[in-house]
Each structure stands twice: as structure tokens, then as C-alpha cells.
Amino acid sequence: MAEAERMVKEMQERSLKPQKDAAVKELDEAQKLLEYVKNNCTKQYDQNQEAAKRIKGLLSDYEAKLKELEEALKQASDTVMQANDQNSLNNKTLNDLLEKIKKLEKERDRVFADIVLAKRQLNDTENLLKMLSDSKKEYEQLAAQLDGAKKDLINKVNSISQAAAKEGLVKEAEDHAATLSRLANDLQEAVRNSSGRTDVQDALAAIDAYKNITDAIKAAEEAAKRAKDAADKALNDVVQGDVTNRAKDLKDEGNRLLKDATNAAKDLKQATDDLTNQQQRLDDAEKKKNALEKELAAINTDLKGVQRDDIGKMIDAAKKTAEAANTSATDTLDQLKAINKEVAKINATPSGSNIDRMLNDVDMTVKNLSSSIPSLLDKIAQVERLSSQIDPNNNISNNINRIKDLIDQARAAANRIAVPMKFIGDGYVELRPPKDLDDLRAYAALSLLLQRPNYNARGDGRRRRRQTNTDNGNLFVLYLGNKDSSKDYLGMALRNNVLYVIYKLNGRSYELETDSITLSGKEPFYFDRVDMHRIYEDVQIKLTKVFTSTNPPNPLIYTRRGEPLLNLLNLDPNEVVFYVGGYPDNFTLPPSLNYPKYRGCIEFSTLNEKFISLYNFKSLTPQNISDREPCKRYVIPRNDYFEGSGYAKVELVNMQSTLMISQWMESKADSAVLLYFTNEASFYCLTIEKGRMVMRGRDGDTILKEEISVGRFDLNGELKVIFQSSDKKIRVRMKSVEVLVFPYTLKKFDSYYIGGIPKDLRERDNITVLPLKGCVHSLSAAGTNPKVLERVGVGRGCYPELLTARKAEFNVGGSLETAPTGFDLSKDMVLSVGFRSTEKNGLLLQNKQDVNELELDMVDGHVMLTFQNNVWKSKKQYQDGEWHYLSVVKTGQNIEFRVDEDDDGEKNTVSPPALTFISNDIVLGKGTFTGCLSNLYMRRPDFDFKAEDLSTFSPYGDVLLDVCSAARPPENMLAGRNQTLNQDGREDAKGDEGSNCFTPTPIPHSFHLAGASSSLSYAVASTTLTNMPYFSLDIKTRSAEGLLFYIPAEQDNYHVALYVSKGRIRFSIGSQREILNRDKYNDGKWHTVTLSLEKRKFRLVIDGLRAKDGELNPREGSSIQLSSAIYLGTPPPSTHKVLKGKRLPEHGVIGCIRSFKMNGSLMAAAAVNRGVGPCFEGQTESGAYFSGHGAYVIVDESFVVGQSFELVFELRPSKQSALLLHVGNQNHLTVFMRREEVVAQVNSGGGEFSVVVQPKQSLCDGVFHRIAGTLCFISRRIFS
């Protein structure tokens, strides 16, 4: 311890300063060294680090640029390869063009040679004309010689003809013609006075104009009838007198006498030949006269309903026809009587004592008859000229159709006369019944106005007492039903001035009481509006009191339900009548309608969304009922309603450099004509087609490229079309949004059309879009309200119920869907719908709600109902193209099913197949139905007592609203071939014995496509196409262009298409998504094509050679949604505009396809076959092949068979019995084979007549046979 302390003390005393100084010095040196290192080493390191970072960044940039350069080089390499490929194609194309140039040069040389030959022929023709001129001079000289002998001939004609006896008849015919001309001029003047009006608010002026029309029509009808009676009388005189047969017999006797006296009177031979020629010409004239009489009868029948502005032309044409027929009949009668009198002179038994006298009489008779030949020849020439004016091909069907069109237009114009008619209890009006009685079976919507006079408010006391005694408020209003009133009908009547609606369906009567009709005592008269809506068995009445006042009250609503299984109004087209205001005295009314005739005014508005007027009457009693002054009333301003059949022509004045056309529209149509501008050389047409705006036009002979809007639009808002001369553009705006821009060539227009186009302009410019159905108002042109020059199918008064779309047309792939709001399958429910189809299979309707499943479909033509694990099948088949209506009724656990009221079906005991549902919505069509559906009624609250509005459904695929063009299938003329065909009691063999016939063997699983006229449509499950299938087929064609098959997609930019272009086969997925093989395959040889779509790649392999794969973007491969329809050949016309927009062929190839497979399996039978038959090996021959399984060709929609009909064709049958030709319906001409006999059968209304020819050799020997014949119709006999 002490040592330690010492050591510590020693340490404390010891000095360490030298060491401290040394340490401080070393510290200073170290600090200096540290500063040196920092200044000379660390700073450089930091600078190096920064330089390294900067260099690293530069290297990264260079590396990125090198990658971009590498990619650019790769793209350049691909571009060079593509350019090389394109150069190869261009080289081949150049070679093709050079070959075509050589061919065209050869063709030019041939044409030049033909031109030289034509010049020679023209020179020969000129020489021939000179010869004809010389011959004409000779004929004139001969005519002068004949004229010199005119006096002698006239004296001889007067001595035998006594034509003056018919001078009165000729004068009467001339008077008739003058009367017709005068009445036609009066009629034209009356029409001219009334046709310029744009509305008919002035009731008195409209009635005065219409009185002139009706008076002129009646007078014209009477005059035409008198002319017809005169012709008929002449014909009856000829027939009753049997002049023709007697003249023929006497002629034969005269020929025999002339033959016996040949040696004594050789100069009579020439006269006898003249007599024979005259008789033949006379027979021909009689035939032409009969044909003209038939034409006159048809025109006379049509004239009874003519009420149109251009009726003057129609009456003038009828006048000319009647005048010609009357003149021809008179002249023919004179000639026949002259022949009768002169031939009677030689009607004696020949004997030796008076043979010389008889020969002298014969000689004189023949000379006298010969003198009348020039006059008869003039009349025959006149008839021939008249026939040539009717139609150059002696086929008057086109002219008859034009006359019918004019009559229909006149009746439509009469239906738009919104003027009341006054009834005073002494008459009635019979209206023409609706044309569409099939629609009336399930649905009837009638709107009319009723007015009742208040006798206490006007007149003296005696008049009031007299009216009160005869009018107690029990009155008849209307009746629409069968002539036999014990059958179905619709009617209205007043009981104590209370309106009752009475109707009868399938033997069960219903009544619906409403309220009293307003009594009005002074002008303006007040009308009550009655709106009746009947849908199947349920009826709703809306009664709006004092509707014609300035502020009418809300309507009163009355309803009545009926029996859901007996719910159709069955009216016979041949027995239906429509009486308003009264009825004929000999007509028996139902007891519930048997009241005195109406007193007051009635005005009709619409029937089933079509205009109807009392002035389009079929008949009226008394005749002056339409002349009475109607009840004046206040006209409520209404919008224009376009009923979907016409147009409005609007005046366009002072077309400026910038012209704006605007109008407000309200419509549910997705396809319609909106605006149309035209002059003599050009046109512009704006339409909406499946919701898209489309603008097309023509500038002179140049067709302008059509423009289609990108999005879809509805027609509820303001439409503007602006013509801008500054930038030569037409701009279309809908609801202030610009939807289209179209080139404008500075054309001038003095008018334009709204909602439709006249027929001649529609045909000239090939406009096929339907007219507009909807409301239009607030027209504006150049800032002013334009004048409406003409209205066709347009009327006043637009109501929401008129815009309902009650029907729809479905094609393969099309469907409609809606949520089942208010439709409960678990409760009591009633469902009714109408359908029409020519196909045997397809789904009509389906819906699934929890465990409840409902499906209606067609299977082999039968209607199948699957509901609550039960299946019902109709007893009949319904693929006949006619309208049929089915109903399903569920009451508790009881389910009933009816088709057309009488087919209650059969309940199957087997378990129903599992149903496939894509959603819980109500689905119509589901992509498999081809045909039409209408009047769907599910008793939902929003549509109770109304048909479902199909425009509120969501459309998918090919569906058209408010149209139905389903065609009826051809009648199976040999459907009863297993029955006895012979009238002599011999029984024909069962079936068609064709074992000895030559039958060509078709290529298995092959289809022959004939271009635009043939196609196959397949319906497959959408899930199958979702899995990206692959297809394969064999193709043989010589077509350089054409579509092979096509699958549309839900997205507009995509599809699957295989087609031929310039001989090369191309595979397209969408816009700029296409691959091809450079070789040409239109060499007429078989080639195997396989194509597939897998994720992002699509491939094409032809004869084992694989084209370069196509690629899709990552999002495209999974987003393409193909539809369930596959088209082989030419797709439906509804897709052609889409194909044209995608630059794909619109029509299929001409050639053969075999072994069409999907996923390695042959495709099932096509849902629709249009003109596709099998293929055969070997050389083809010109002609058409009919498979015998429902194949047919419609040559012409209308055909008139005259008194003679020539038929020539060649055939090579494979069966011994088959239909060859059929014209008409009940009255028909049919040519068919029956066990190798060729039969011509005719029914002209008086029973069937037939001619049978047995060929000398079999027609079934594998070679063509020529069938030729002429059918002549004389006195209901047929000569072959």
C-alpha cells in the first residue's frame, strides 16, 4: 500500500510535457495529412463516382436506343418481306392484267369485225327500206283502184248488211262515251278543287268536294255499266242465236256444194278461200272482244271503290276500253247478222232442178260477204292496236296491278278524311272490312267520335215532341262481324243513351256498360271519344266526354275479362260485313244490338293503328246520306301521325347557301325513311336502319358512298339536316349531336319528302327501307314553317298507343328479351301469343323463375309446351305460313293449353328433357326461330288490356320490329297421291313408284351453292362458339369472288368470314384482321380448307399448306363474342349492308361444298335452306335441279292466262309423279305428271277440266324430254 502511494506520488511529481509536446506535434501533422488526403484523394473518388453514375446512365440510354434500333430493323425486315410478298402478288396481278389486256384486244378486234358486219347489215336494211317504199307506192296505187270500186262495194254492203238497224245502238254507245268523258272532266275538276287542301278542318268544303267525287263515281259506274250491258247484249244475241255454229255448218255445206260445182264454177274457189279467211278473222275478233269484255268487267269492279285525286285518268282509261269493246261488239254483231242472213239463202237441199240457181245464189253470197272484208279488217286492226296499247307482250297483269295500286291509294286517301257524317235514323253506311282479319282475330283497337243531338235545346215544340217520340235513346251504333249474326262479331249500341259494347267470341257473348253519351244542342257540336281496346278475350273502353272541347276531362275507363281459352274473333273473309249508323232492312241483328238506326253524328279515326273514315264506304243508304251537312266541331291541334305506309311532301322555297331542315319526331321504329331530297338527276336519302343513321345519295350517274353513324339512336327528339355550300357538306344532327357528315354537290331542290318515298322514286333509287311509323311535328325549313304539298298515309292525331310495336320478324340468331316484371309463374297466370312460320323447328318463348320453367317451341311443326315438368304437344302441325294463336292458362295446379281454340294438345307421359336457360328474362326466339310473333299478352300490370310493346324488349341478332314478311310455303299439289286420283274408280298405287326411274347419285354431305340465290343457315349453341371452335370443309368453285361462310359477332368490329377474292381464299376475323394464301383456288378442283381461332391466333390451312398465322391483341382474343348463327353461302339480306361496310362479299360463291365440319363433326341439318341442293360428279348441264323435298321457284307474283296459253320446257324426271307448273289458287292452271302421264288441269270457277297425254316412251330414262303444248279455252273446254 505504501509502495503504491509512493509510486502515485512519484508519478504526480514526474513531468510529461516533452511527451505532450511531441503528441501535439504529431496531432498537427496528422491533421495536415488528413486535410491533404481529403483534398487530393477523397474528392477525386467522389468525382469518379459521379462520373461512373453519369456513364452508367449514358450506357443505359445507348442500350435502349440499340434495342429500338434492333426493333426497327426487325420491322424493316418484316416490311421488306411483306413488300416482297406484295410484289409477288402484284407481279401475278400484272400478268393477269396483261392477259386480260390481250383478251380485250382480241375482243376489240372481234367487236370491230362485228361493227363492219353491222354496217353491211344496215346498208342491206336501207336497201330493204327502199324496197318497202316502192312496195308502199304499189299498195297506194292498188288502194286507189280499190277506192274506185268503193261505190259498187257500198251498194252491195247496203243490200245485205242492213247495218242501219243498229244505228241506235251505235248512237247510244257514242252517247255513253260522251257522258263518260263529261263525267270524267267533272270528276277531275272536283278533285282539282279539293286535292290542294292540307287539312280538312273546314267540314263543309270537304263534304262539297267529296260530294262531287261520289256523284262522279256513281255516274261513271252507271255509264260503264250501260256500256258493258250493251256489249253483253250483243254477245248474248250471238250466243242465243247460235250464229257461229250455224255459220260453220252452212259454210261446210257451201264448201261441199262448191266442191260439187267446181267444173261449172271455177271462179268460186277464190271466193270460198276468202270466206274461210273471213270466218277465221271473225273468230279471232270474237276472242279479242271477249278478252276486252273481261278487262272491262275487272276495271268496272275496281272503279266501284275509286276515290282518288287521279281518278280522272282511271275513268278515262275505262272509258276508252268500254268504247272500244262496245264498238267492237256492235260491228261484230252487224257482221254476224249479215253472215246469218246471207248464208240462210243457201240453206236448202241440193237437187238437179235448182242446182244452177243455188250456185248463182252462192256466188252472189260469197261476193257480198267479200265486200264486207275491208270493214271487218279495219275493226280487227283497231282491236289489235288497242291490245298493243294495253301491253306490248299481251299480258295485262302489270296494268291491272297499277290500277289496283291507284285504287288502294284512293281508298287510303278517303280513309284520311276526318269529317263526321250525320245520321237521322233513316240510313246506314257499309264500310269495307279490314284487310288483315288474321290480326283482328286477336286484337282490335277502334277509335271513334259520337255525337247525340239535344232535341230540347232547339226547334219548335212540335219538332221536339216528334223527335222525342221516335228517339228514346235506344239506338244502334255499329256492327263488325259475319253476315250470319249468330257467329262472332263486335258491336256497339245505346240503351237509354248509355253506350254498351257487345262482342261474341266462339259462341260466348259479352257486354260492357259504360256511361251516357253527351247531348249537344247547338254549334259547335260536342263529341265524345270512344277508344276500344280488345286483346284476345279482354276488353277495355276509354270514354272521354266532350272530347272536342278546348279542355276535355280525363277519360273514364271500363274493363271486362272473358274466357281465356275461347278468345279469338273468327270472321269469314267472304261473309264479313261492317255496318255503321244502321243496317239493311233484310239483315238480322243479334238481339243485343237490335235497335233503331242511329241519330246524330259519327266520325271514325283509326282501326288497328290504321286510319279509317266513313267516307271510304262500300255502300250507303240512302244515297244522299254523305251529302248532309255534318256536325261542326272544334278541331284539336294534333301532330301528324305517319302510319307506316306513306309520306309527306313538303315545299322548299328559296334554297339558301346554308339551309337547315329540322323536325321533331316521336317513334319507336329502328328502321325507317326519315328524309329524302331529290331532283331529276340526284338524290340524298337519310334513313335509320337497326338504330343507326345512314346517309346515301347519287350525283347524276355517280353513286355516292353511304355513311353510317357510329352509335345507335332513338327517334325521340329534334332532327336537323344542314346543307352547307361553303364546305360542300351535309351535316346530320340528332338531339343537337352531330351523327353524320356527307358530301354535298350544291344541288337545288324545290321540295323534299318526310317519312317515306313515292313508289316510282323508291324503285328508281333502289330504296328498300320501310316508311316511318311515328309522329312528326314542328317542321322548319330555312327558318320558316314550310307548306305540306301532299300527304299519303299521314293523318292528324298522334296518340301513344298508335306507336306500339305489336309484332316482330325473327331470323336465325335473333331474339328479344325483357325482365319478367309482373309475370309470376308460381301463381295463376294466362299467356297468349300469335306466331307464323314456314319452318318446322324453333323456340317461341321461354322463362325461368326459381324452380318454375316455361318453354314454348316448335318441334317438327308441332307446338310443344314444357311447364312444371310436364309436356304438351299439339295435335296438328303449324308450319304453313299462316297466323296461329296459342294460349296457356294456369289455375291453381290445373294447366290448360290451346292452339287456335280447338287444338288442346296431348299431354306426354315421358319426362321432359332438361331445358337450357341463358337468363331469368322472358326470351322470344332465342336465335333458333324463323318467322313472326305478334300480340304477346301476359296480363302484366303495365300492359294489362294491351298487347306487349316489343320495342321495350332488348333485341339481339337479326330481329325486325313491326314488320312480318314470312312467306307461305308452296302448296303440296300431290299431297294426296296415296289417295285415288282417277275419276273412273281405278285406284292408283301407293306412294311414288320411281324404282325404274334414272336417279343420279349425289356426292355425300355436299351442297351446291348458286350464288346470290342460295344459302344455308345453321343455329348452334352460343357456348359452342365461345370455346373457339375450328371448321373444315372441301370447296370446288370457279368463282373469283364470293362468300363461303360467315358468322357475325355481337361487337360490330368482329366476325368470322371465309371468302374468295380474286381467286384467293381469305380468312377474316375483323377489321384489318385477315390472312390469306397467295395461290389461286378457283380452278374447279376440290380443295380442303381448315381454319381455327385459338386465343390470340387464327390459322388458315389449305390443302396442307399453312398460311402465316394472324395475331390478335391480348384483350381481343377473350372479348370476341360470336352469335349463334352460321351462314353458308349468301347471308340474309339484312346483313348485306354490314358486309358491304366491312368490305366483305355480299353474295356466296357458285360451286360445291362438302364435308362441312365443326370441331371434327359434320354439321347437323341446316335450320333454313334457301335454294341449296346436292352436288353431282361429272359435267353439268344448263337448267335447274329440283330435289323434290319442297323445292320450288316462283316465276312471277302475278300472271294472267288469256284464251290461249303456250307452254314449252324440257325435263329429266327422277320420279313418275310430280308437279310441273301451278298458276292461281282455287281458280288455277296446273300441269303435273301422274305415273308418267302428263296432265293439264284447269279450274276457272265452273269446275275442274283436264287433258291427259300418255307419252310413247318412258320419261324416266335419264335423258331430257321436251314438253310443248297450247291450251285454248273455248266454252269451258280445253284443247291441246
Report on this structure.
This protein is α+β, with helices and mostly antiparallel strands and 1280 residues long. It has seven domains: 14-148; 155-410, no CATH class; 417-627, Jelly Rolls (Sandwich); 640-796, Jelly Rolls; 814-961, Sandwich (Jelly Rolls); 1006-1170, Jelly Rolls (Sandwich); 1204-1279, Jelly Rolls, CATH 2.60.120. It contains 17 helices and 63 strands. Strands 16, 17, 18, 19, 20, 21, 22, 23, 24, 25, 26 and 27 form a twelve-stranded antiparallel beta sheet that branches. Strands 1, 3, 8, 9, 10, 11, 13 and 14 form an eight-stranded mixed beta sheet that branches. A hairpin with a 2-residue loop joins strand 50 (1097-1102) and strand 51 (1105-1106). It is extended, with a radius of gyration of 44 Å.
Features of this protein?
about 1300 residues; alpha+beta; Jelly Rolls; 7 domains; 8-stranded mixed β-sheet; extended; disordered C terminus; ConA-like_dom_sf
